[in-house]
Design brief:
Structural class: mainly beta
Number of strands: 36
Strand order of the largest sheet: 15-19-20-21-22
Oligomer: single chain
Radius of gyration: 28 Å
Strand content: 35-45%
């Protein structure tokens, strides 16, 4: 009886709650519902999760909200259309920060775009203009392609556009492109659009990470990305984390456009997009954030964007930072500090991240600040730590050469440094894991002060060995071949070279090596286990 009584009570309670819910539910509106604003997630989202964290679009404040289909008159202004100041805004939906006017990189997969119009449009004229301008571009530009368009109108001011392009014979590496342009389309009132903002999509295959065994006998794909990341930078000696970058704006020039960044965890095979610019060498205000995994946030951002997490450290040092790097063990920051307009003779500041304790050596960085060789802009002072010394260079103000210094972790002092390379060469280098060999960026391979025969190009040492892997080209391959890149290994003790992988697709590059020295990590845009295509 008690059990039957309890069942009856639960049924009555459920009916009561259902009735309350029905009475309190808001009436259904027939007008367009205003979409909820996108919440900005803090950078604590970088903590381990089973899937990707929030996309970069989450912090784009000027993104027009996506309007659902509605029965409102197409000429009635809406909040989204009021936000569009140009005749049209063309947005890449997978990355809403990328919108017209722009030339940027997309993958060859079908792409979804949303077109927001300032005024109600003649739909047929918009579709015709997109097709016409894409075809005209393909006739004018040899590498441009004519895409297939699929149209889905939300209302007369918003169009969802799906773009599909023909499959290429070989992976795209910024060769093909297509144009999204509504020039010549007419509004519902009959006004023709003249030179509205456009979206140029440059097609680039998404990269893959592969590993090749040190004997060259095994190849294994680690991860295949679905976004067009083009830059890969290893963070720290264990190569667990990679800093990835994809273009915002794209051009075949030396312009230094900011990228969109993500962190890739090689151990967990997890991609973590970031909503703010990142860098591995910081230059800026004395208050900034460092992540002990090996990178910096370029700016403090808004309160909502302040990074949090176990690996994030807020740094406050007195002065303007003209360059900062992590020590080899990521326990310290090594910084060049002065006033914002200072041109050289900086203080050297060594800061312990765990405690904030600093050692400051006044004007230890004698000489001028470094400048870019491809532009007139300043670049950060950089520091290289091999565990015993921190090496850094300044610029001789009266001659085109470096002023070279080193900081000793043992004595905590700065002295001048004379490497064995010529004065006109760069003094930066990488060492074998035991420090016996040094490969200078453009000065050659050395064992101490003795130059070694057979100098490979820049690459990566295999941990625990005196072997060095590097990227090279097969100079016997036809000039038209896209499969003439190779990975080679140089044994510094034996002075011998052998090829580990040949006939690799263009733009293949080295990422790093495993801590045990058994694997070489490579970025590729093609399947390394597939034979080269003609």
């Amino acid at each position: 009886m008690k059990r039957r009584f309890m069942i009856v009570c639960w049924i009555l309670l459920a009916l009561s709650l259902a009735a309350c819910t029905s009475e309190e539910a808001p009436p259904q509106e027939t007008t367009t519902a205003r979409p909820k604003p996108v919440e900005t997630q803090p950078l604590s989202a970088v903590q381990p999760k089973p899937a990707e964290t929030q996309p970069l679009s989450a912090v784009q404040p000027t993104e027009p909200p996506l309007l659902p289909a509605s029965s409102e008159p197409p000429t009635k202004p809406s909040a989204a259309n009021e936000a569009v100041t140009e005749p049209v805004l063309i947005r890449l939906d997978e990355e809403p920060q990328l919108h017209s006017p722009i030339a940027t990189v997309v993958t060859p997969a079908p792409q979804a775009y949303t077109l927001f119009f300032r005024e109600a449009m003649d739909r047929a004229s918009v579709e015709q203009a997109l097709a016409r301008r894409a075809a005209e571009r393909a006739r004018e530009e040899e590498r441009a392609v004519v895409p297939h368009f699929a149209f889905k109108w939300v209302n007369d001011r918003q169009l969802h556009l799906t773009v599909t392009i023909p499959e290429a014979d070989t992976p795209d590496t910024a060769g093909r492109s297509y144009l999204l342009d509504v020039n010549g389309a007419t509004t519902a009132a009959g006004t023709q659009l003249q030179d509205p903002p456009t979206f140029t999509a440059v097609v680039h295959a998404p990269p893959q990470i592969w590993r090749i065994s040190a004997d060259g006998k095994e190849r294994e794909r680690i991860y295949a990305f679905d976004k067009p990341y083009v830059s890969f930078e290893s963070l720290g000696g264990d190569n667990r984390y990679l800093l990835l970058g994809r273009y915002q704006k794209y051009c075949e020039c030396d312009a230094d456009y900011e990228m969109l960044y993500a962190l890739f965890d090689m151990q967990e095979k997890r991609l973590i997009p970031y909503p703010v610019p990142l860098t591995t060498t910081y230059m800026g205000a004395g208050t900034f954030y460092a992540d002990k995994r090996g990178f910096f946030y370029k700016g403090p951002g808004t309160d909502e964007q302040k990074p949090t997490g176990e690996t994030v450290v807020k740094v406050q040092t007195d002065g303007y930072v003209h360059g900062a790097n992590f020590s080899k063990d990521h326990a310290y920051l090594i910084m060049a500090v002065g006033t914002e307009g200072q041109e050289g003779d900086f203080d050297l500041v060594i800061r312990r991240l765990a405690t904030g304790e600093e050692q400051r050596i006044r004007q230890a960085l004698r000489g001028g600040a470094p400048y870019s060789e491809v532009s007139t802009g300043r670049i950060p002072v950089s520091f290289d730590d091999d565990g015993r010394y921190v090496y850094f260079q300044m610029r001789d103000k009266n001659a085109y050469k470096e002023l070279r210094y080193k900081y000793s972790w043992e004595t905590k002092t700065v002295t001048t440094w004379t490497p064995p390379v010529p004065a006109e060469a760069w003094a930066s280098f990488t060492s074998s894991s035991d420090g016996v060999y040094q490969l200078y960026t453009n000065g050659g391979l050395y064992k101490g002060t003795q130059q070694v025969d057979g100098q490979p190009s820049f690459g990566c040492w295999l941990n625990g060995t005196h072997a060095f892997v590097y990227h090279d080209y097969d100079r016997q391959a036809p000039d038209t071949s896209r499969y003439k890149e190779q990975i080679r290994l140089y044994d510094a003790d034996r002075r011998t070279t052998r090829t580990l992988a040949a006939k690799l697709y263009q733009d293949t590059s080295l990422i790093g090596t495993s801590p045990d020295g058994k694997w070489i990590y490579v970025k590729s845009y093609a399947d390394l286990n597939m034979p080269p295509r003609p």
